Amino acid sequence: NIWQGSFPYGSTAADGFHGIAPVMAFPSNSYGLYSMVGNVWEWTSDAFPSQNPHEQHMTLKGGSFIDSIDGAFNHKATVVTRMGNTADSGSYNTGFRCASGVGGGGRAPQPDQAQMQKILEEGGVEALQEFLGDKASVMTPKQLEAMQSARKQAQQQEL
User: Fold this and answer.
1) Cα 131 vs. chain centroid, distance in angstroms?
2) Whether the Cβ atoms of residue 70 and residue 77 lie closer than 8 Å to each other
3) φ/ψ of residue 39, rounded to 5
4) pTM over 0.85
């Protein structure tokens, strides 16, 4: 659900809605999700960079019903469009997503640096790799240098 017509005066409501459309008013995407683009900006729990150190901005994504598909006015409504706003801000064209189901949600917590340092000191690189599992690749400075050197040589051979 995006703006149709001449902005800001001529909304044709060609899709049947002037403003917010009800959930499931349009078909779902290939993942079974509704309204991932347009309709309302979706609040997320991710921080958004702010030039004012005294304000914490949160990320909104997807665009809204007053945005355009090509970015000719306001914002370009796409799945990758992002903007920030303070958490105490609200508007008719913002909302949030409710989801239920199995798994997912949020990010995995970062490993505790002090704990990793202790594991490294007591058991070495192999112990740290075992602790991290397949989430990360642990290597010594010499291994890192060798990998970077090999990449550099491969890039030079491509030229």
Assistant:
1) 28
2) no
3) 65, -80
4) no
C-beta of residue 58 within 8 angstroms of C-beta of residue 86: yes
What one-letter code names the amino acid at 106? G
Instruction: List, in sequence order, every residue forming a beta bridge with 85; answer none if it has no partner.
Output: 58
Give Dmax (Cα) for the chain.
Answer: 69
Q: Tell me: the pLDDT tens digits for 113-139?
A: 888 889 989 998 888 888 888 767 787
Q: For 76, which DSSP code?
A: B
**Residue keyed to tokens 């979706």:** 42
d(CA 36, CA 44): 13
Contacts by residues 32-37 (CB-CB < 8 Å, ≥ 24 positions apart): 35/1, 36/62, 36/79, 37/2, 37/62, 37/63, 37/77, 37/78, 37/79, 37/81
Q: Which two tokens stand for residue 126?
A: 């192999």
Tens digits of per-residue pLDDT, 23-59?
888 888 777 888 888 889 998 888 898 888 888 899 9
Is the Cβ–Cβ distance between 1 and 15 less than 8 Å? yes
